[in-house]
Amino acid sequence: MKLVRFEFECSRDIPFYAHLCNRFLTRYPDLTVARTATGYVLEQEDDQAGLERLAEEIAGEFPLSVWLTDSRILVAAERLGTRQPLPISGQFQDYCSHCHPRFGDNQSPQFGQLALPCPVCQGETHWLDTQDNTAALLQTLLGGDSVTVGGAVLSLKARDDSQSLLICNPNMLNPLFQLSAEQTLALSAIEKPAVLGRNKSPDESLPLARYRLCFPWNRELIVLCERLRQRGITWLALVCLEGEMQRPLVARIAGKWSPLTEPRPTPFSPAPEPLHDSVQLAGWQANWRKKVISFSPAPRGAQDADTLAHCALNAINLEHGMKTLVLDSAPNTAALHFTGDCEGKLVHTDNQGQVQTFLTLPSLPTRGAEVLSQLMAGEQAEVTTKFAARWPEVIARVEQFNSGAFAGTLTGLLALCALLLDLDKNGRGLRTMDHRQLADALEACAMEIPGRRAPRIDYPLIKNDSGLTIDWKRTLGSLMAFRLVEPEDAGKIAFGVFDSLADYLANWIEHLDNKFGICAVGLCGDEMAFECLAQRLAIRIGKNYPLLANHKLPLVGANYAAGALYLKRRRFAARSAE
Fold first, then answer.
1. Is the whole-model pTM more than 0.90?
2. Which residue, 33, 40, 44, 46, is CA-closest to 81?
3. How far is it, in rounded angstroms, from Cα 385 to Cα 392?
4. Cα(555)–Cα(98) distance, rounded to whole angstroms?
5. In this predicted model, what pLDDT tens digit does every residue of 453-487 receive, in sequence order?
6. In this predicted model, what pLDDT tens digit does every residue of 51-70 receive, in sequence order?
7. In Å, how far are 44, 142, 196, 339 from 449, measured between CA atoms?
8. For residue 462, what are the β-bridge partners?
9. Cβ(417)–Cβ(406) under 8 Å?
10. What is the Cα–Cα distance from 305 to 256, expressed in whole angstroms?
């Protein structure tokens, strides 16, 4: 007889795992369960044959979760768990591996029965008064009209203003999109998150360089997608009308999945006593009570870039137990906060636990004409003149460029680089000035040549009125110089844009390390969803410092409000609410 422990290590709560643990309690009178700080535990003492049967059952019932980071079976000396059922925090999906093949497979005699009873997930409770209407929805879609299913608008035609696709035929993913093995697994996880996939061959039907992809996430959509797959339909364009229907977009950062945003952020615990009991910031109110931070929607209001970056670093420190103003015995940390909402920052904690800004991304001129004027007025005049003589049509489009809301963001800089590399044409042959689409096109071009030796694009530091920033004129000048030398190798130069930036950032963090003793680097902000950037940061910075990210909190949104609870600022909550 041996006592064996089955461990599921998770980055956050998984309600369905807690439900399954409680089911095993009812089936095995000697089994114990626990929810530890790192995950879920099941324990059983039995002979070899009995343990093997239990292991097979656990493997068959516990599905893959996007928040599962590791699993193991080990021999234990004593029990951690009890016979008490685990609390279930939040709702879980209306299907599981037991019922999905029965109602979701067109070869099953029970196909399309939305209220099919399931003893495991009890998913039928959501559909007891609902008839299968998927055949009628199918005909509407095939007739060229859109349909609304549970708040999600679905269509057979992709729109230029929507990047979300619901995949009906998983077998067609690889021919259409470049996905990593981790992304493919994440799509199949029980949470059915969305991931960003590079479009391998933009065309008339899918004109954009990058799409947000997801699989069907409830019984009705599963049946509808199966009917569409039978008709040869690979995907549906997806526009979510209701926030609750939006699939959580996740990005692979620091070796784990992190949500970019969440319509319902999960409470954070345990949280040390903050400096403010309640704070409103970035559209969320954070409330602390009895070591738990809970969130509720709030007015968005004005957002200061320094404040958001400092709060993002506090949120990472809060999750990982690093230095904050209330956890001031831990070593210093740095954070890269890159977001499309405000200026990007490199921030760090100093020896007094205060958050300081080391670097701000450059704020580009609002108008493209002014960009060219400044390039022609300084050290980059010669290379700009040569570039304009070689590609006057490119310069003409740059002149029309309006950096506007993205002036101080990485997205804005990447968009301008894409224009200079002539990457602004989509799969329909149309030119675009959309910043995000341009930045996506640059990354897609860079991802076509992973592993190749890249040119070194310049990102030198200069001082301005607000502190250190990057000399964007030299950055663009070096890009133009490389294109003049290698005009047909845009992919190589695009890769250099990301790789060189990661290299420069690594050097600046080493500078901070020499001065303050940096022990770890946090990655935060929605621009970390640029996969090429995240990969190069992992290589350039991750080899010397542990990389941290928000795994219990989203990369943007509620994490700012949580971090603001620990800002040393008087009447912070009152000012944020004004």
1. yes
2. 33
3. 10
4. 34
5. 789 999 999 998 878 999 999 999 999 999 999 99
6. 999 999 999 999 999 999 99
7. 50, 38, 18, 25
8. 469
9. no
10. 26
- Which pair of structure tokens corresponds to residue 272? 């040390």
Contact 173/184 with Cβ under 8 angstroms?
yes
Contact indicator for 2, 45 with CB cutoff of 8 Å = yes
Q: Is the Cβ–Cβ distance between 72 and 121 less than 8 Å?
A: no
Distance CA 312, CA 522 (A): 9
Structure tokens given for 464: 């301005």
Q: Which residue in 491, 359, 467, 475 sits closest to 416, CA to CA? A: 475
Of 42, 97, 50, the closest CA to residue 71 belongs to: 42
| Cα–Cα distance list, 174 to 83, 180, 184, 200, 201 (Å) | 45, 10, 9, 9, 12
HEC letters along 341-375? CCCCEEEEECCCCCEEEEEECCCCCCEHHHHHHHH
CB atoms within 10 A of CB 66: 26
SS3 55: helix
Strand, helix or coil for residue 492: helix
CA angle, 528 then 533 then 537, to 5°: 95
Distance in angstroms (rounded) separating the CA atoms of residues 523 and 519:
14
pLDDT for residue 245 is more than 60: no
Q: What is the number of other CB atoms lying within 10 angstroms of the CB of residue 404?
A: 11
Dmax of the chain from CA atoms? Answer: 82
Spatial contact of 10 and 17, defined as CB atoms under 8 Å apart: yes
Contacts of 122 (CB under 8 A, 6+ apart): none
Residue with structure tokens 């290379």?
A: 383
Distance between start and end Cα atoms, the chain: 65
85 CA to centre of own chain: 32
- SS3 labels along 175-205: HHEECCHHHHHHHCCCCCCEEEEEECCCCCC
Q: Which of 190, 195, 186, 138 has its CA nearest to residue 164? A: 195
Token duo for residue 382: 């010669």
Three-state SS for 92-157 is: CCCCCCCCHHHHHCCCCCCCCCCCCCCCCCCHHHHCCCCCCCHHHHHHHHHCCCCEEECCEEEECC
> CA-to-CA distance for 546 and 195, rounded, in angstroms?
24
- The pLDDT tens digits of the residues spanning 196-205 come to 999 999 999 9
Which of 361, 401, 286 is CA-nearest to residue 525? 361
Q: Tokens 């799409």 map to which residue?
A: 211
Task: Write down how long the chain is.
Answer: 578
The residue type of 246 is Q
Closest CA to 417 of 485, 480, 352: 480
Give residue-wise pLDDT tens across range 314-369.
Answer: 999 888 876 554 555 556 899 999 999 999 999 998 887 788 999 999 999 999 99
